[in-house]
TrEMBL record, chains A, B:
InterPro entries, sorted: Aldolase_TIM, HMGL, PYR_CT
Record's protein name: Hydroxymethylglutaryl-CoA lyase
Gene3D superfamilies in the record: Aldolase class I
Residue ranges of domain Pyruvate carboxyltransferase in the record: 4-271
Source organism: Thalassobacillus devorans
PANTHER family named in the record: HYDROXYMETHYLGLUTARYL-COA LYASE
SUPFAM superfamilies referenced in this protein's UniProt entry, alphabetically: Aldolase (SSF51569)
Pfam families: HMGL-like
Length: 306, 306
């Protein structure tokens, strides 16, 4: 049985764009329950400016308030050295850096060129050197850019190389706005796996156009075993109002578990947490298993007259 | 480029369970537009008792009212010889028979044993013999039953054989309540293709638990090239309120077209039709491409200051 690693991003990628600020204590309680659910990695929060993302203004309180478990990796997104300092002060296991493969998207997202992003990452890597905090490098818009369209796969490989040169121990290929198609995922993942067979690669999919789980299947087929997902399918894309967000953690775990993959996460706990999440954010979430039930939730057999 | 055939079921599988009766003229106009969209087959309606399914009480008017195109197959669901007579009177190209692989589901759905269903199908086949009307045999709950759970694959093959013996020219494997997993689809389709390499096989998926398009990918990989889908993702399952319905036609065509498959259907026409469908049924539909836009719908590049 192939082990597939589930990495939760709801409290970062999901909460950051909610209308409602989820109270700090509720965030901490949710994160503690996620830690208890068998999730392999949790992107807890983002050490960005509170002005840029007010919903995550409690990053320190959250990181310091959660009960950390030995076998869970607690990662945080950071945009600059100031973020690295904050993550280090909170003893994050890992920091996640993000640059877009698309120049236009990078400038739109972080107001700098991709080169300047990587120059800043070098400073971050220097700062973190010797601290024991791991670096993961995320490449946003890997499978397509909502402004530029198609992305050159060679540029993806170049930027992955740039991350590795500055000491990243893992790479995330992110389909930021849900543009990846299954064959594209397969093709690029094979190239990445051929070049760096032992590199921990994460795939980060959005289900914007319904292809999220199909893309996971193709990623697994190409040998990738780490997947970001968001409880309830929280998250989304500012350019596609009404569109669904990240692939849904419990829907992903449900599919993989019933396919016979070895996932550590406890499906029933995740389903309960996702229902609870709806009360935290104040709206329905796009996850489907919480509505339909698991495949194994059978209905009582009707009585028949003879 | 592999040709994939798209078969529309919204006006039957979708409309049958809507709260609102879609007026006959609106049905006819929608079907005419679907005919013009390049869809390969349309399941127009169901010749069942108007008491059983009031929403389809206008089956004759609809079948006689539409403009039929040479290269589209117009099929209708029929439950018995009376249905066959009605379909024949309307000169349907094909009738679609439905039995469940699960005894319990068949009794729940059509109030008879599977054996009795097939005895009735024999009468239908005899009646239709020489009329030139083709028979397609659908196996409901092929991938799982909401009452019985797992389904024996040998039983699926037996019942497919039973359909072929009475003269069916095609078989549909239907995942009636969205229980199929991608590896299961692959495995069963390979068995069916090994046994009947030249048989036109259709896969009918529901997206109840989010796996619909992933299942399509695995079906294609196993050599199946015909897929039922419902405009807007209309349809659903009475046992899973709030769950999504059939896989969505325009989301399916969107994925396949961007993967490079040869689909005859016109994606832009389907997207427009799906938006129109929302006004016909009076609620949002689950389709995602109508919300998010196509992958190729790029946003204007923002202007940057130097």
């Amino acid at each position: 049985m192939t082990r597939i690693y589930i990495q939760e991003v709801a409290t970062r990628d999901g909460f950051q764009m909610e209308d409602r600020f989820v109270p700090t204590d509720d965030k901490i309680a949710l994160l503690d329950q996620l830690s208890d659910s068998g999730i392999d990695k949790i992107e807890v929060t983002s050490f960005v400016s509170p002005k840029a993302i007010p919903n995550l203004r409690d990053a320190e309180e959250v990181m310091n308030g959660i009960k950390r478990k030995e076998d869970v990796i607690y990662t945080t997104l950071i945009p600059n050295v100031r973020g690295a300092e904050r993550a280090a002060a909170c003893q994050a296991d890992e920091v996640n850096l993000v640059a877009s493969v698309s120049e236009t998207h990078n400038r739109k997202n972080v107001r700098r060129t991709v080169d300047r992003s990587f120059a800043s990452f070098k400073e971050i890597a220097d700062y973190l050197s010797g601290t024991g905090i791991a670096i993961n490098g995320t490449l946003a818009t890997t499978f397509g850019c909502p402004f530029e369209g198609a992305i050159d796969e060679n540029r993806v490989l170049e930027l992955a190389e740039a991350y590795l040169e500055l000491g990243a121990v893992g790479i995330t290929l992110a389909d930021t706005t849900g543009m990846a198609t299954p064959n594209q995922v397969h093709g690029l993942c094979e190239k990445v796996r051929d070049r760096w067979p032992d590199l921990p690669v994460t795939l980060h999919f959005h289900n914007t156009r319904g292809m999220g789980l199909a893309n996971v299947i193709e990623g697994i087929r190409a040998g990738v075993s780490r997947y970001d997902a968001s409880l309830g399918g929280l998250g989304g894309c500012p350019f596609a109002p009404g569109a669904t967000g990240n692939i849904c953690t419990e829907d992903l775990v449900h599919m993989l578990a019933f396919m016979g993959y070895d996932v550590n996460a406890d499906l029933d706990k995740l389903i309960n947490l996702s229902k609870h999440l709806e009360t935290l954010v104040g709206h329905e979430v796009p996850g489907q298993v919480i509505k339909a039930g698991k495949i194994s939730d059978l209905h009582e057999q009707p009585a028949f007259s003879k």
